[in-house]
Amino acid sequence: MQISTLRRQCRPFAAAKQRVHRSPVIPSAAVPATSASTQVFDYTQIEIETKPGIALFDITPQIRQRVQQLGVTEGFVNVLSRHTTTAVAINEYETRLLDDVRQFLRKLAPASDPYLHNDLHLREAPADWPGGWEAWAAQEPENAHSHLLSMLLGNSETVPVSKGQLCIGTWQSVMLVELDGPRKRTVGIQVVGTTQQQQQQQQQ
Amino acid sequence: MQISTLRRQCRPFAAAKQRVHRSPVIPSAAVPATSASTQVFDYTQIEIETKPGIALFDITPQIRQRVQQLGVTEGFVNVLSRHTTTAVAINEYETRLLDDVRQFLRKLAPASDPYLHNDLHLREAPADWPGGWEAWAAQEPENAHSHLLSMLLGNSETVPVSKGQLCIGTWQSVMLVELDGPRKRTVGIQVVGTTQQQQQQQQQ
Amino acid sequence: MQISTLRRQCRPFAAAKQRVHRSPVIPSAAVPATSASTQVFDYTQIEIETKPGIALFDITPQIRQRVQQLGVTEGFVNVLSRHTTTAVAINEYETRLLDDVRQFLRKLAPASDPYLHNDLHLREAPADWPGGWEAWAAQEPENAHSHLLSMLLGNSETVPVSKGQLCIGTWQSVMLVELDGPRKRTVGIQVVGTTQQQQQQQQQ
After folding, report:
1. Which of A98, B1, B54, B140 is deepest in the core (most CB within 10 A)?
2. Topology classification of domain B39-203
3. CB pairs below 8 Å between A and C: how many?
């Protein structure tokens, strides 16, 4: 085993192999040259209308765009799946692989297996649910398998940003994994870091 | 697929459906109005006495309380499982679902399967173990399955904080997953961010 | 269930049981006493030549060394697996357990199962691949199972640093998980935080 540590910049997107699903990098010249040094804690949410069952959505372009808009040069992005039947994953956004993922997850936690969470008649509705238990049960999906897969896949990923670039690898995409669609979903995107101006100030 | 980006605040806890297991949000007025701007890096540990086998513990109230105590308005929380047979997960803390999780994990990596790590007679004790190999083997559990599940579930999650609120969704809880209890466990909770005072200063 | 919150420092490495695979902690005296307060966003990549199939590599010494070199006292480390067939995990780096992990993962997503991603004749090469489809297909591995395992294990972990120490537990190591080796791989290591000087300044 050989491990060597080397300091170097993120592979710039321009040098990476072209991927159809990636948006181009907008030069960070959008940041006014006169702005004071700023530490950024920017929280936004991406809204996605998902497809039925298990479905994956590449949200890398939105993340990259937000980093560029803010002009963050050194920092990172916290990505949070905000639902109990979704997850966040990083992998290759290749059509046939996405179908493999769907099949694999369906086998790993089959929807048809017996789950206690799906016995709606044995569960209580939240105390303040409008219309009471009947109304709650009428809209409550039998989706225990989706919860289990959400826990396995995980709900947060953190991606470093360096020299203004997301530090993911050439073939990596950040994805929302819908495990019980279709629904309207939100993903939390938090960009933390410093702008180019602040970095320059420190170097002077 | 429709993806739209919108900037908005975290859903405030008050607006979320009432959950019994969540502690109320303490207004951040606890922060003295005269305090100087502060960047917070606060590391604490939560101590939990766990239950036998696989067991899940909602630690969201403790995390939320710490964020409020510190008066952090924009930032995030790093949650770290500090043991090799525990994990951190985010999902719905619903009684029957928790039993589904236990059953699912027990099937996924059965304790009764053969594992090399459980052949204590073929392993060495740490060089400085008091009492030597005998004493080490006497206390060493056969828990390879717990290690495997810990790796699958993952050991860290990062949750953004915005406008003083944890940005998890309405039904989400942050949980310690005990995979080889009962034990006394610690979870690392790191709150990073800025206080309201600093935010206000920047806006002036 | 008993949960108590306590504020305390990370268990210092010196107090932990001796582990052969861990490099000693270098005192942060390397930081010049005269340096101004600094907020650190340091991104580096570790390069690893991996072994065939599934293989795990302890990268904790490199992470700990980088934290020490930078003199970061309060902060955290973002660790990112930068490939679609690798992952990052935290667990015990024990020889026989590593073999259990290999066996477990091979059973969980068998390489011999049918996967759509492995039908190379039905996939297109990237538009600009040198030599076109033939050249692409000749080098493209049939590794759908590795992608699936990467998604399950997860691609990022965040580890807090407090009082200059990595806050992982005594038996925890941060590992790169190779799922389709051998290859030359890079792991992104981002150290974020403040130096001792800045901490002291705040306290004065």
Report:
1. B54
2. Jelly Rolls (2.60.120)
3. 130
Task: Tell me what ipTM this predicted complex has.
Answer: 0.86
- Interchain contact, B155 vs C172, CB within 8 Å: yes
What is the rounded distance in angstroms from the CA atom of residue A156 to the CA atom of residue B27?
27
CA distance C104 to C110: 10
Q: In the prediction, which pLDDT does B8 show?
A: 54
Decide if A15 touches C, using CB distance below 8 A. Answer: no
A88-98, pLDDT tens digit by residue?
999 999 999 99
DSSP class per residue in C103-170: HHHHHHS-TTS--GGG-GGGSPPPTT-TTHHHHHHHH----HHHHHHHHHH-SEEEEEEETTEE---T
Q: Name chain B contacts of A45, Cβ cutoff 8 Å.
A: 5-8
Which candidate in C151, C152, C189, C192 is best for mutational testing of the A interface (most A CBs within 10 A)? C151
Give me the pLDDT at residue B5, please. 64
Region B143-172: what's the mean pLDDT?
A: 98
Cβ distance of A10 and C43 shorter than 8 Å: yes
Contact: A153, C152; criterion CB under 8 Å: yes
pLDDT of residue B183 exceeding 70, the answer is yes
pLDDT of residue A20: 30
CATH number for A13-112+124-203 (one of 2.60.120.460, 1.20.1090.10, 3.40.50.1580, 3.40.50.620): it is 2.60.120.460
Q: Which amino acid is at C123?
A: R
Question: Which C residues, 108 through 167, put their C-beta within 8 Å of a C-beta on chain A?
Answer: 109, 115-117, 119, 122-123, 126-129, 144, 147-148, 150-152, 154-156, 158
Instruction: Indicate the SS3 state at residue B186.
Output: strand
Measured between CB atoms, which of B9, B74, B168 is closest to A41? B74
Q: Distance between CA atoms of A173 and C84, rounded to whole angstroms?
A: 9
Given a cut of 70, is residue C137 above it in pLDDT? Answer: yes
Q: Is the pLDDT of residue B165 over 90?
A: yes
Q: d(Cα B49, Cα B61) in Å, to the nearest integer?
A: 16
A104 pLDDT more than 60? yes
CA-to-CA separations, B151 to B81, B88, C62, in angstroms, rounded: 11, 10, 20
Using left for φ > 0, alpha for ψ between -120 and 50, and beta otherwise, residue B71 falls in left
* Per-residue model confidence (pLDDT) at position C11: 53
Q: Which residue of A has its CA nearest to B167?
A: A188
The answer on pLDDT for C186 being more than 90 is yes
Any idea where the domains of chain B sit in the sequence? 39-203
Residues A44-53, mean pLDDT to the nearest whole number: 98
Q: What is the pLDDT of residues C99-110, one digit of tens each?
A: 999 999 999 999
Q: Tell me the CATH class for C36-113+142-203.
A: mainly beta
Contacts of A41 in chain B (CB under 8 A): 74-75, 162, 193-194
